Amino acid sequence: MHRSYQSILPTHNKLLQQRWDTTYYNEHRKKVQEARPMVDTKAPQTYLHLHLKLKKLQLEEERLATIERDNRILLEKMSYTMRTRGRVDNRNNYKYKSLNREKRIRELLRVTQENQEILRRISQRRPEYNHKIWEQDWKTNQEFMENIAAYPQEWWKKDGMKSARTARSTTSSRATPRTPRKTNDNSKKAEEEKTETPDNKSPPPEE
Length: 207
Description:
InterPro entries: CFAP97D1/2, Hmw/CFAP97. The chain has about 210 residues and is mainly alpha-helical. It has helices spanning about 15-35, 50, 55-85, 100-125, 130-150, 155-175, 185-195. The longest helix is centred in the middle third of the chain and has 31 residues, at about 55-85.
């Protein structure tokens, strides 16, 4: 069997060379199988304390226990109230007491007195300017202005009122048609008598 073995390198004993080559090959295959990759492609390691938070679960259980205890106490109180028709004292006879009440009263009195004093001084103070003199001066100035003015005061308003009145009268006359007036018989007779005076009578025809 070893005689038919063809060695790559020249050798004087094919049997030993075959054994050596087989040993080298087996060691190589073993190293290949046991070789570790340079890049770690495995999934990251999972930690139990990150996914299962025991502290949070404990707090949640404590909160639920507290709620359950409060509900039970409230239910007992309600049942006791329903059985005994309720004996609740809703009266409150507590009087509000302030430690600095007297001080605040004194401060309020002081402010009130100061305000009254200021009001008295303002009311007793005489004015520096006399409005009656101002009004008399203004009337005098108005008279002077009327005397030296070429047109009367507020002439544009008067003209505007006149033009408005004339416009209204013209529009009313255009809008309403005129109707002939009916004269009485007495007025007609009076007009005829006036026209037929003795001077204007025609002479009687000659025979």
